[in-house]
Amino acid sequence: MHRVVVLALDGVHPFELGIPARILGAAVGPDAEPLYEVVTCSADGRPVATGADFAIAVRHSTELIDQAGTLVLPPFANHDRPPGAVAAALSRLPPRARIVSLCTAAYALAALGLLDGRPATTHWKFTDHFQRTFPDVRVDAAALFVDDGEVLTAAGGAAGVDLCLHLVRRDHGDAVANRVARLCVVPPRREGGQAMFIDRPTPPVESNLTATASTRRWALQHLHRPLTLDELAAQANMSVRTFTRRFRADIGMAPGQWLAQQRIARARHLLETTDLPMDRIAAETGIGTTASLRQRLSGATGVSPWAYRRAFRTRAAAQV
Fold first, then answer.
1. How high is the pLDDT of residue 86?
2. How high is the mean pLDDT of the chain?
3. Which strand (E) or helix (H) includes residue 102?
């Protein structure tokens, strides 16, 4: 039986801590025999304070890792300052054993150099900081999880479910993974990635402290139009060259890139809060056609406009 050891550190997130046992523990063979032995340990075998208002009693210490086939590291407190217990635990891991991080536990693996040159992911809220902190890691901010052989990383929260189902599928095939998904009442595969969950609210345009602020404010009021660079520059009373230079200096990107982001942000807002038909949303955001809306939103979020609306439409909008 494949032994999976879950390492609980102080401040561990209870939800992610329980995912391996719930998902992997539900995987059984043709004679209902368990396919995984999932055990939890702490650095010293003592109770661990969680990130909630309770502690957990852990019966095992890291000695279990000596016989582990997979080590799972759930997120814990102060993830950007991983304790020495992580390195000590990993030093006990047998050769060819897998290492799995859930959510921000990827910081610990990266701090130890285990993700250098590898693709990896973490919670979308931290991917920018993670990439700045560990520039040698190839961060995939859109993925629910990344499988790089013996090192696997998951995005935040329920992405740990997706990764554990992937482990079952990788080890025992689709049929077993699908049975686990049915038993746990979760989809065997989720559409899209974590890109659809990234919250990118339209930032408020500051008062006229920058040269292009008033033009950006005007553009947001006219997103339904096919705005050109010449038109934006004229609105700012600048030449195209000067406007482009000052725009990039103000917000760090070209006008066309900023406009594309604002159109997608407006489309997401309309999908979440209204029942407007797709052609109307495409028109009101200046994207043009339903086909263009599908292409652009899928590129930005990994899912179609219809799937995005099903996932995020508010109850109030659904009742209109």
1. 93
2. 90
3. strand 98-102
Report, as ranges of residue numbers, the positions in the chain whose pLDDT lies below 70. Answer: 191-193, 195-196, 198-209, 314-320
Q: Which amino acid is at 291?
A: A
> Rounded to whole angstroms, how far apart are CA atoms 160 and 184?
13
Q: Over the stretch 93-144, which tens digit does the pLDDT of each residue have?
A: 999 999 999 999 999 999 999 999 999 999 999 999 999 999 999 999 888 9
Yes or no: say if 44 and 70 are a contact pair by the CB < 8 Å rule.
no
Output DSSP code: residue 67. G
Token pair, residue 100, equals 């799995």
Residue with tokens 């080890």: 171
Taking a C-beta distance cutoff of 8 angstroms, is the pair 88, 6 a contact? no
CA 195 to CA 189: how far, in whole Å? 15
What integer pLDDT is reported at residue 147 of this predicted model?
Answer: 95
What one-letter code names the amino acid at 153? T
Let me know: does 144 contact 194? Beta carbons within 8 Å: yes
Helices (H), the chain: 14-24, 84-90, 106-111, 127-133, 159-172, 174-184, 213-220, 229-235, 240-251, 255-273, 278-284, 290-301, 305-312, 315-318
List, in order, residues 6 or more apart from 7 with CB less than 8 Å away.
40, 41, 42, 43, 62, 65, 71, 72, 73, 74, 85, 86, 89
pLDDT at 251: 82
Looking at beta carbons, which pairs linking 268-272 to residues 24 or more positions away fall under 8 Å?
Answer: 268/297, 268/301, 268/308, 268/312, 269/202, 271/305, 271/308, 271/309, 271/312, 271/313, 272/309, 272/312, 272/313, 272/314, 272/317
Q: Identify the pLDDT of residue 74.
A: 97
Report whether 137 contacts 115 (CB < 8 A).
yes
Q: 18 near 8, Cβ under 8 Å?
A: no
Helices 255-273 and 290-301 pack at an angle, to 10 degrees, of: 100
Closest CA to 143 of 116, 110, 121: 121
